[in-house]
Amino acid sequence: MTTETNSAAVSRAGLVFTLFDANGNGVIEADDFELLGQRVLAVSEGADEAAKDALLDSLRGWWTTLVTELDTDGDGQVDPEEFNAIVLAPERFGDALDAFAVALPALGDPDGDGLVERPLFVALMTAIGFAVPNIQALFDAFGPDAEDRVTTDVWAQGIRDYYAPDKVGIAGDALVGGAAA
């Protein structure tokens, strides 16, 4: 991993830690994922129950994977030092990542046309905890169409790219204030 790659991956991982620590107590616990899920579902206008359940299942899967793979001291929590291991071995989180990368964009596409409109994208990402200017920059980096929509596939791939330490200059870098490609 190059210094540039490592720096980008560490910045992204640091931001994700703060978002996953939904209650802000400095560690990630199972309750954080339930709280995060409830925040996202609260703004999931028009989503059906299957899409909502898929999101909650994906977040629970993230938690199960994180605690299994990263909780080295067995205290049922993941602290920042333990979490930073995600930067070095993201392949350990493939299934959890894929489930989330499908579930979140599906919430943004309640009519099932494969397109996500900007207002719902912004609402969902704000509920996760990202800053609105960064969300707007991310949406723009995804290349919206003339009707200000992005595809669920582009969003899903953007989520996968965000967790790849070998990726630099990606759209997701906008979420940490970096310039997106």
Description:
The structure is a single chain. With about 180 residues, this protein is mostly helical. It has a single domain (about 5-170), classed as Orthogonal Bundle (Recoverin, domain 1), CATH 1.10.238. About 60% of the residues lie in helices and about 5% in strands. It is built from nine helices and two strands; from the N terminus they run ααααααβααβα. It has a two-stranded antiparallel sheet with strand order 1-2. The longest helix has 22 residues, at about 50-70. The mean pLDDT is about 90.
Summary keywords:
mainly alpha; two-stranded antiparallel ribbon; Recoverin, domain 1
CATH homology group: EF-hand
The CATH topology label is Recoverin, domain 1
- Helical percentage: 55-70%
The total tally of domains equals 1
Largest sheet: 2 strands, antiparallel
Distance between the termini: 19 Å
Question: Spans of 5+ residues with little confidence (pLDDT < 50)?
Answer: none
Strand content bin: under 5%
User: What characteristic shape results from the CA principal axes?
Assistant: globular
Structural class: mainly alpha
Looking across the biggest beta sheet, what order are the strands in? 1-2
Strand count: 2
Rounded to an integer in angstroms, the radius of gyration calculated over CA atoms is 15 Å
Can you lay out the helices and strands and say which pair or pack?
Layout: H1 3-20, H2 30-42, H3 49-70, H4 80-83, H5 85-88, H6 94-107, E1 115-117, H7 118-128, H8 132-141, E2 149-151, H9 152-162
Antiparallel strand pairs: 1-2
